[in-house]
Amino acid sequence: MRRRSKAPSSPLxxxxxxxxxRVRFPDDPEGVWGTVRDHLLDRYAGAIGxxxxxxxxxDGRFVGTDGAVTGDEPYAAGRYLWFHRDFPxxxxxxxxIDVVYRDERIVVVDKxxxxxxxxxxxxxxxxxxxxxxxxxxxxxxxxxxxxxxxTAGLVLFVVRPEDRGTYQTLFGDRRVRKEYEAVxxxxxxVALPVTVRSRIEKERGVMAAREVAGEPNSExxxxxxxxxxxxxxxxxxxxxxxxxxxxxxxxxxGLPILHDPLFPVVREDGPEDFGRPLQLLARxxxxxxxxDGTPRHFExxxxxxxxxxxxxxxx
Length: 315
Prior knowledge:
α1 (36-44) crosses α2 (50-58). The protein contains five helices and 15 strands. By secondary structure, the protein is α+β, with helices and mostly antiparallel strands.
């Protein structure tokens, strides 16, 4: 078996905190691609479109280790090229990111509502990862875990790529203590505290995860913290990390989180309403540092707004 050689470093810098796309030309035993253009047109006809590929070639957007390439160069298997893809138009999220803690290995931040943790789909440059790379001058910064775009609160980022797997393992092995806060309706008929266990599945192309019959794969502890009129603040402690888990479990209790666009009913997609953020906050993050054994405990500095105008004092 032929061993693949290590990819050379990119000749292109990041743009807006986003790495360039790296392309490796595969083997072509039947000689399908005579030129660089032939392969790029085949490879990106659907994702970019042939017209855009031609424009990018003319503009020198495809770059090799020796500089911009032309479409007429002979195809060579194993060759590497890089390019910056066209970013989608994004609505700026009008909230900043607060750095809670920073050292040579990790950065812990308070991510605001509406800001995705890392690039995905139509959210690319308006993400916490891209912003922090630019603002902190840390081009290799990557998240150790993900927080839903609509959820605010603590996220752990790793400064050096070689350390990321170690911190990710903490989350995968459930060695990180996470606590959340939520604002939802108050219902005296719901006995709390309670531990909710169920099977949650998320289907591709379906916006909201859902509970289904079967062996439970999710567990959340729900506690009442305070009541103000018809609303209340809850402490949520997930023991697992399924997609939309806390939102699904609160909805199952008949206590959907305030301003949730998915539960109990999926709202039509439209412009963001920055004045009505989902009232869910990642409040606490605690773990033992895997490199030096230091106990780490972080508390969010953010506060949910859902109880501000409630009529009654706390119980």
